[in-house]
Amino acid sequence: MPNQITTTDYDARATVTEAQFDAIMARYLARSADAVRDLHGAPGVIYDATSRQRLDVWGTGSTPRPAFFVVHGGYWRALSRHHTLFMADVLAEAGIATVAIDYGLAPATPLREIVRQTRAAYAHVLRHGADYGLDVDRVVVGGSSAGAHLAAMTMVGGGWTDSLGIGGRTARAGLLISGLYDLRPLVDTPANDWLSLTEQSATALSPAFAPDPPPGTTAFIADAEIEAAGFARQSSDLRTRWSDSVTIGGTTVTGRNHFDVFLDLADPASELTAAVIDLVDAAGAHEDM
């Protein structure tokens, strides 16, 4: 177990006031509704017959478009795909569709099942995305906080793709923002009240301890200037851990906190938006190899 963990290392809420948090969550939802209002797409697609969870596709056009497959945060227990579409119009202007997913929330849904659902959504996009106007050879995964953890779990190796019918096609490009990639410290935090992790299950569900992503994978690992210490440390640690096998980029976004940094994807001039566009190019380059 990692040593010298303080009670605030993984308390992202402590980095903002209650009023700030509520305002940012409201912006997620309102900006998302605005972003998709005039876009073509396929909302409410059931991607998994077992859980009946849904995804939305927005920003498609007359020809197949690359996709940003985005996973919401909320410490695995809150929010939805409807909070996670605020980048859709900006990316559509760049010729990129947005796919936002729901998953069952903790504690009713165990984290192992949340990971399975996220991977099932990704596999659904690869198998059926062409039906929705997507270029399934150019899919970039991404997310913030818990969503970054889940997106990273679609990038790692380990044979999980076989049971989903996409043999070997892990996500080869990902934007990971303010995520947690080693879940062991959460065993001794209040988050375990809804996650019910043991050290063994936390290790098994950590991207940091899964087989590395395959060669040819590209990741941009970002965090915010105002972060709980554990989140900032884990972004740095994953850049180091994956650097031997993955083409790594990254940044710490100045003037942003753990929650509002995600909204930089609604800004066409932001570094994170530029990263998505670059990752689409990297995904395409991999397919050309």
TrEMBL record:
Alphabetized InterPro entries for the sequence: AB_hydrolase_3 (IPR013094), AB_hydrolase_fold (IPR029058), GDXG_lipolytic_enzyme (IPR050300)
Taxonomy, superkingdom: Bacteria
SUPFAM superfamilies: alpha/beta-Hydrolases
Leader sequence segment: none
Pfam families reported for this sequence: Abhydrolase_3 (PF07859)
Alpha/beta hydrolase fold-3 domain location: 69-157
UniProt keyword terms in alphabetical order: Hydrolase
GO MF assignments: hydrolase activity
Record PANTHER family: AB HYDROLASE SUPERFAMILY PROTEIN C4A8.06C (PTHR48081), KYNURENINE FORMAMIDASE (PTHR48081:SF33)
Name of the protein in its database record: Alpha/beta hydrolase
